[in-house]
Design a protein that fits this description.
This protein has about 375 residues and is α+β, with helices and mostly antiparallel strands. The chain has twelve helices and 14 strands. The radius of gyration is 21 Å and the shape is globular. Strands 1, 2, 3, 4, 5, 6, 7, 8, 9, 10, 11, 12, 13 and 14 form a 14-stranded mixed β-sheet that branches. Helix 11 links the parallel strand 11 and strand 12.
């Protein structure tokens, strides 16, 4: 008889707080782990605060041994994704566990049974409710400091995945990029040529309220267009778009945003970045109060020499035409002025040559790789 007990947990905030807290405690003493804000994960895992639940079913599970938490996992059925692909696929996310075969097997047995009961025939992950949630299990780069936008996990995680018969579905890679002292000459020439050829211009804002009103919805509608064919992506609904406008556009530094528009003022490309908050999140231990807000506020205001590239999107008809050069010709001088020395690309599908090509004029190193694992149920 197993000494591990796995049970489904409710979406009550108190139970979810214990659930998320285990994931943080499991990395005690690890110098590369960056915790999430506990409140953010709780809000994502509750239907009352995450509009993605309108097209997703989900159930979180927690594993215990002798009354002590030893693992967590959330099963997700994204109905919109399955309608798009014609598959009966479930996702798993928020997976954390101690290095123990019995714990891992019982945890996955529970979530897989939940999926089979609902007619699913395969399981893939780690993935979230939407493409803007964290995705991909780290398989290379365990000695690199994580980012706010990515998952960090112990090296033994992928070992257990392979032991259980999971195989590679897709990989994402990440780059650490050196911010140059000036715009690379060839890069600048391309940007100038493209702007004149297509009659493009760049919008700058000093008011968060104004950027929300004029381009808030357009930003995420462009993401829907640009990301439409990417692995795992389903269009953001109107409610999700408003949700992300409220979450992200209120905290971003406007000088770290580039909006490229055509002659009619329509948004055709964007680059959204922000100062790295990795070190600040480590200090906060996932909590804003009583003192976690202070290092986060300092980081968001620019007390960092690393910038995180969160979103780069180009309208499909402008892709592969050099428009990315316009975005970075706009951002690089501001990165230099803000004291950024390096940039984190965050996740890029390994087969997305167009995205990786945009770094060809920069000094860079590929320093992390992560994977979505898949298995038949």
């Amino acid at each position: 008889m197993s000494s591990v007990y796995v049970h489904p947990i409710s979406t009550d905030s108190d139970q979810l707080r214990q659930y998320v807290q285990f994931g943080i405690d499991n990395y005690k003493g690890n110098s590369c782990y960056v915790p999430p804000l506990i409140s953010d994960d709780i809000n994502t895992l509750r239907p009352e605060t995450n509009p993605a639940w309108e097209f997703c079913d989900a159930q979180s599970f927690m594993a215990f041994r002798n009354g002590e938490p030893v693992g967590t996992i959330t099963g997700i059925i994204n109905r919109a994704a399955n309608e798009k692909t014609g598959k009966r696929q479930m996702r798993f996310g928020w997976v954390e566990f101690i290095d123990d075969k019995e714990v891992v097997d019982e945890l996955f047995a529970a979530v897989e049974a939940w999926g089979r009961e609902r007619g699913m025939t395969e399981i893939v992950g780690p993935m979230g409710f939407t493409d803007l949630d964290h995705e991909g299990m780290l398989i290379e780069g365990f000695d690199e400091l994580g980012t706010m936008a990515t998952i960090y996990n112990h090296p033994y995680y992928p070992v257990h995945m392979e032991r259980m018969g999971f195989a590679k579905e897709v990989d994402w890679i990440e780059y650490r990029i050196t911010v140059p002292d000036a715009i690379p000459e060839k890069h600048a020439r391309i940007a100038d040529l493209i702007m004149r050829k297509y009659n493009l211009s760049v919008k700058h804002y000093t008011s968060k309220k104004k950027i929300k009103e004029e381009y808030g919805r357009a930003i995420f509608e462009l993401v829907n267009e640009a990301y439409a064919d990417l692995y795992g992506f389903v269009p953001l609904t109107d409610k999700l778009i408003q949700h992300y406008i409220d979450i992200y556009l209120g905290i971003l530094r406007l000088e770290d945003i580039s909006l490229v528009v055509d002659a009619e003022g329509k948004l055709i490309a964007l680059g959204i970045s922000m100062p790295s908050v990795s070190k600040a999140l480590r200090k906060s231990r996932g909590k804003l109060f009583p003192f976690g807000w202070y290092p986060l506020l300092r980081a968001i205001r620019g007390n960092s020499d690393v910038v995180d590239l969160l979103l780069v999107a180009v309208k499909p008809e402008y892709q592969s035409k050099g428009v990315n050069a316009v975005i970075f010709a706009d951002l690089i001088p501001r990165y230099i002025a803000n004291g950024y020395k390096e940039a984190e690309s965050n996740v890029e599908l390994e087969g997305n040559a167009n995205v990786q090509k945009q770094w060809e004029y920069f000094e860079r190193r590929q320093h992390r790789r992560r994977r979505a694992f898949i298995k038949q149920l």
